Amino acid sequence: MKTITLINGDGIGPEISDAVVKIIDASGLKIDWDIQTAGADVIETEGTPLPERVLNSIKKNKIALKAPVTTPIGKGFRSVNVQLRKSLDLYANLRPCKNLPNVKTRFDNVDIVVVRENTEDLYAGVERQVDDDTAESIKIITRKASERICKFAFDYAVKNGRKEVCVVTKANIMKLSDGLFLECYRKISENYPQIKTREILVDNLCMQLVQNPSQFDVLVLPNLYGDIVSDLCAGLIGGLGVAQGANIGLDCAVFEPVHGSAPDIKGQNKANPTALLLSAIEMLRYIGENIYAEKIENALFKTLESGICTADLGGNTSTSEFADAIIANL
Ligand code: NAI
């Protein structure tokens, strides 16, 4: 039996992870869940939102499913998510964005995979106050990180039958940093003659995405553009309740939804578990459990097709009723 770390998070985290675990268990797949609490709820007892035992569990099991965790505002707290990604060197942030059945959006045929570099760029946190009126942040782009994220994107494209990997930069202005990212993309692309290449500037990409998103396939971007563009893409397919994600490194992978802990609807049994469920389905594919991934995905699609959905998608089904409906469709 496979052991998987489950971080059930805080806010809506426990409600949506209960729903997702119930669905996976009902599918017949046997998983030994190594449940690790983290976030606001453990600060009082353990003094940190991300205790060492959580990292150790992921290092041991190699795979984790993670519900959202609140980042407490105040001195001394780094985001649990940023800390996790850094500590485990989860260098690739993968966010597939595809239309779901019966989820009404402005566009049909959106099927974009955003591959975001997860470790450097302006998010390296190299900032300083020059004087009272000036602050500076340093954008760090390295050959090593750029080559490995581009390689990840092309490998993903090959493995998943995708046709094109488009690189997104602002290399016309940031000739050195984004220029290096682009240079790495060009070099890596030579090893994948079967995959089409395309280069686009990030501002043009944003305009094209909101006008004609179906022209895009796999996008590979440095960290900051990747963060912004992946939320834009989430908006194209129905919003945060349905946007899945994964953070992947050489040794470990953590699958998590794009959304946060939604404190405004915490404990009300109305959060949409779809984003976490889709992240879990991608996780099952990643560990080779394709049959169960497909079975659960079909049950989710059938449920949405029948018009059952949570409040964020215009329905009136609760989190637990939605999970029960999916289980009935398995
Ligand atoms: P949020 O994503 O938690 O919520 C934004 C809005 O979307 C809220 O109105 C919320 O009710 C709604 N929403 C989010 N997920 C939903 C779902 N599954 N079903 C229905 N509605 C949903 O963003 P916010 O409020 O900015 O952040 C809250 C906390 O979450 C912060 O402490 C933030 O640091 C943390 N956070 C954690 C993340 C993670 O663990 N990966 C990612 C993003 C934020």
Q: Span between N and C termini?
A: 21 Å
Identify the CATH class of the largest domain.
Answer: Alpha Beta
Overall SS class: alpha/beta
Bound molecules: 1,4-dihydronicotinamide adenine dinucleotide
**What is the CATH architecture annotation of the largest domain?**
3-Layer(aba) Sandwich
Strand content: 15-25%
Radius of gyration: 20 Å
- The helix content, as a percent range, equals 40-55%
How many beta-strand elements?
Answer: 12
What's the rounded overall pLDDT mean?
95
Order of helices and strands: EHEHHEHEEEEHEHEHEHEEHHH
Characterize the overall form.
Answer: globular
Largest sheet: 10 strands, mixed
Instruction: Find the CATH topology of the largest domain.
Output: Isopropylmalate Dehydrogenase
Name of the CATH superfamily of the largest domain: Isopropylmalate Dehydrogenase
With helices defined by DSSP (H or I, 4 residues minimum), what is the helix count? 11
Strand arrangement in the largest pleated sheet: 2-1-3-12-11-4-5-10-8-9
Number of domains: 2
Which residues form runs of ≥5 with pLDDT under 50? none
